[in-house]
Sequence to fold (56 residues):
Amino acid sequence: MPLRSSVGTVTAVQQFAAAGVLLLVTACCMALAARIYRNSVLRVGAPVRWRQALAA
Fold:
């Protein structure tokens, strides 16, 4: 998108849509990382498997 934007072939709506998708994906990744951190790193003791780390 930055290359298309610099060339000038992108409308404002497309730029805002791309920015919105970027923000949404960033928020989802942060929520996933927080869940994994809370369920695995903060536990003391035996190793935690991925299913346990992703469980609610």
Summary: DSSP finds three helices and no strands in the chain. The CA atoms of residues 23 and 42 lie 27 Å apart. The mean pLDDT is 88. The helical segments are 2-7, 12-41, 50-54.
